[in-house]
Specification:
The complex is a heterotrimer. Helix content of chain B is 53%, strand content 0%. Chain B is mostly helical. By secondary structure, chain C is an alpha/beta fold. Classes of the chains: A alpha/beta, B mainly alpha, C alpha/beta.
């Protein structure tokens, strides 16, 4: 068992449309002994809107969240949502600047002690740590066979990408999800759009652009022979799912799953437990793809 | 259209005063535009936006559609050989445009304002309430079939919105008092 | 007792030229290279710009001169692991066919060359992932095969690793504009119906006949130059979709190609650093040799007492320049030995 307390920032989407991401993340982490601690009263990261039109608000939102982590038992926070992760990381970079930190501390009425030392990692990074990924491998009950997967990281699970982040995934050809799912026996396909943008931030305010982007991602994913698209971002997930739904009559239907759902399934959880029944494309023969490990 | 240059760009100084970007580091290579996720609907790509800042084209930029078609994907910034923080630059231009009384509203401004309002009130966003609020403001509802499929799959958040504690509400009040104040790069 | 032997570390064109010129005056030279053969990178190049001399034949000529001069002892497959100043001389330790050896020299030339930038660092171009994406160096190595394989459209991408403060090196590698034009020319000559595009930011052809060469490639071979740095390469329909901006038009463009050639940068070689620091020399911020300021040295290739350098270990340069530097370093060595002998008497 890993037994490592870690701050967990689910973000707003995981309480709504991406609930299965939250459920499966908690199941998987619990199984291998990672104690996820959700800070009380965390607030929205600001999504695209706060940093787009109100920088002061964005700074306060980020500082407040990171401060909750700084005061918790762990100085590392993991976010499964790519937008939350990217925003928290941007905030943490911004708060390295003492001038900004001072201004932010006035905003949130706290001295923000140690806030600059909070380490922000995406859930993919957490689960890819050697000891944890070994723990995952050791707890597998099933292996996938004959399952072609493309890993869709989206733009923000790997960005902003810093030179100093030698450990982090290369933003143009990330590997962490490929390795995690490869270890489950899935046939992980390399493809061109691993970390391209789905246009998700425009899905509610500019669907034309979002459609151009999602169509391209879906086309490339299907052309690379995928049966399943695995994602690590709730916005990528809903955006791709909704687009497939709109194209139902015309295009190939392909399940878009959270990578944690696949890990959970291979660990022996039921399709319902990991929330695969809640997907819009929910009639995939998962059972047939699993063999005892 | 002739752009008359009357000395160093005051817009450049203004932008650089807000965000940590050196506009003069740009080598005009076009990598940003070549990989831009919003380019199909922009009248100026990121490279041109940078050049227009140098040319002091404040009004043109703040009225542009391009700054709102940026999806904040960070890809341009990631590939920029001059390490220009283009995402922060776009944020800066958007915020400037938002503060400008002459800026006409659009779908994105409407959305962002609504989102920010909700976050200020609830501390978190609430998809169902946000969707309803958007509809109220004239955005078409999602397709009925989609809504039905999401509801039957228990994907729609029916819980009441989050109630943030006092410290959060205090922070928001301070943001509103101090908002707009410059606070260094 | 003064040993007048001279050590040359690195048997590329710069080192070979230095060895030839030093030995021509009757001095003993030991020319060491870690590779199995002399000739460095150039032995694997096809035709060289601008006069299309074959790299291999140039190397053959130099090797012939070296073999015919008994004053030059060649040690290939040998790596110098220690080079130290000892009482006005240089003590070198090296491992030759498994045997550690030591030898005293009176002067040395460092001509350790360069490495090629790893094209995989640009994940967006898909080198090593997408079939059909190669580097300019691969083009040289597999020239015959590449020219024979029919292509409908080829795209050359310049400045891959050069002029990039983020993923690559901040400097211009100097020769890529020329070798890209040369490769485009060869492709057009071999396959006149192929459409060939070069994506560039600037065209730097500052070599003798360089500008005329590039103009000729455009005007006579009709290679199309597009100003813009490519954003992404996407495998599509069995071909490679190129996404870029035509920065002169200010519009995004797309085109499908069968072959994508990345003009990768010249980067400092790993071997240079340890040798240079051992003899008290310095490296610049990029890892190339930091020369002594011009007004303070007697010879332009002078590094420290009795040690000179030549070629791309100092900074990216073309073949001609590397040989010029080899000759200059040889002149420096000879004049150093001459004045040293005077002092010893």
């Amino acid at each position: 068992m890993v037994s490592k307390p870690i701050a967990y920032f689910p973000g707003c989407s995981l309480h709504g449309l991406a609930k299965p991401f939250d459920t499966s993340t908690r199941l998987v982490c619990n199984k291998i002994g990672i104690a996820l601690q959700e800070p009380d009263d965390w607030n929205c990261c600001g999504a695209t809107s706060a940093h787009s039109i109100d920088h002061t608000l964005n700074l306060a939102l980020g500082a407040r969240n990171l401060n909750l982590v700084a005061k918790s038992m762990s100085n590392t926070v993991t976010a499964p949502c790519a937008a939350c992760y990217s925003n928290l990381k941007r905030s943490s970079l911004e708060l390295q600047n003492p001038q900004k930190r001072k201004f932010a501390s006035e905003l949130v009425d706290d001295d923000l002690e140690n806030v600059e030392n909070v380490n922000v990692i995406h859930l993919l990074e957490l689960l890819s740590e050697t000891s944890i990924s070994n723990e995952i491998k050791a707890s597998l009950k099933y292996r996938f066979s004959d399952l072609n997967v493309v890993c869709y990281y989206g733009c923000l699970t790997v960005r902003p990408n810093l030179e100093s982040d030698l450990e982090s995934d290369s933003s143009e050809n990330p590997q962490s999800m490929d390795r995690l799912l490869g270890a489950l026996g899935a046939d992980v396909r390399d493809w061109s759009h691993k970390s391209e943008c789905c246009g998700g931030s425009h899905s509610l305010c500019g669907p034309e652009l979002a459609n151009i982007r999602t169509d391209e991602v879906l086309r490339q994913a299907i052309a690379s022979g995928a049966d399943v698209i695995a994602v690590a971002c709730p916005l990528c997930h809903s955006n791709l799912e909704f687009r497939l739904h709109a194209l139902q009559a015309r295009g190939k239907q392909i399940p878009v799953v959270f990578f944690t759902q696949l890990i959970g399934l291979a660990m022996g959880f039921a399709t319902k437990e990991v929330g695969l029944n809640k997907l819009l494309v929910n009639s995939f023969p998962w059972r047939e793809k699993l063999t005892l490990a | 259209m002739t752009m008359v240059i009357t000395g160093n760009s005051t817009l450049q100084a203004e932008v650089e005063g807000i965000c940590d970007v050196n506009i003069d580091a740009c080598i005009q290579c076009g990598t940003c535009t070549g990989g831009c996720s919003g380019i199909e609907l922009m009248e100026y790509g990121p490279r041109q936006i940078i050049q227009l800042i140098k040319l002091n084209q404040r009004q043109l930029l703040l009225d542009s559609k391009a700054i709102w078609m940026c999806v904040s994907c960070h890809i341009c910034e990631d590939r920029c050989p001059s390490k220009i923080k283009i995402t922060s630059l776009m944020d800066t231009l958007r915020e400037m445009a938002c503060k400008e009384p002459t800026t006409k509203t659009n779908e994105q401004i409407k959305f962002h304002k609504l989102y920010v309002k909700q976050v200020k009130a609830f501390g978190r966003s609430h998809e169902s309430i946000l969707t309803m609020a958007l509809t109220f403001k004239g955005t078409p509802l999602p397709p009925l079939k989609l809504m039905k499929d999401l509801i039957t799959r228990m994907r729609v958040d029916m819980t009441p919105p989050h109630r943030p504690n006092k410290s959060y509400r205090l922070s928001i009040r301070r943001v509103e008092e101090k908002g707009g104040k410059r606070h260094g790069k | 007792m003064l040993n007048e032997g001279v050590l040359v570390v690195g048997g590329g064109v710069a080192g070979m030229q230095a060895a030839i010129d030093i030995a021509a005056s009757g001095k003993e030279v030991v020319l060491i290279d870690k590779d199995k053969n002399l000739g460095g990178h150039v032995k694997e190049y096809g035709a060289l710009f601008p006069d299309l001399t074959e790299g291999a034949s140039l190397v053959e000529q130099k090797v012939r001169i070296i073999k015919n001069n008994p004053k030059i002892k060649v040690l290939v497959g040998t790596e110098v692991n220690k080079l130290q100043q000892v009482e006005g001389a240089l003590k070198a330790s090296f491992i030759n066919t498994g045997n550690p050896q030591e030898q005293i020299f009176s002067a040395a030339v460092i001509s350790t060359g360069f490495d090629n930038f790893d094209g995989k660092k640009y994940g967006e171009y898909g080198y090593g992932r997408f079939p059909g994406v190669i580097t300019g160096i691969d083009f040289e190595h597999q020239e015959e095969a590449i020219l024979k394989r029919p292509v409908k459209t080829a795209v050359f991408i310049k400045c891959v690793g050069s002029r990039d403060r983020s993923k690559g090196m901040p400097y211009c590698s100097k020769i890529c504009c020329m070798y890209t034009a040369k490769q485009a020319l060869e492709l057009k000559k071999a396959q006149p119906n192929a459409q060939v595009y070069v994506f560039y930011m600037d065209i730097r052809s500052n070599f003798k006949n360089g500008e005329e060469f590039v103009r000729g490639v455009m005007e006579n071979q009709h290679v199309k130059y597009i100003r813009g740095r490519v954003g992404k390469v996407i495998p599509t329909n069995g071909r490679l979709l190129i996404r870029a901006e035509d920065t002169l038009m200010g519009v995004p463009i797309e085109l499908e190609a069968d072959l994508v050639v990345l003009a990768t940068a010249m980067v400092p070689s790993q071997a240079t650093q340890s040798l240079v620091t051992q003899v008290g020399g310095k490296l610049d911020n990029n890892g190339f040799i930091l020369p002594i300021p011009m007004a303070e040295s007697e010879n332009p290739m002078s590094l420290t007492k009795g040690v000179f350098y030549a070629g791309a270990c100092g900074f990216p340069c073309d073949v001609k320049d590397a040989m010029n530097q080899g000759s200059a370093a040889a002149a420096g060595v000879l004049s150093y030995l001459q004045s040293n002998r005077g002092a010893a008497k």
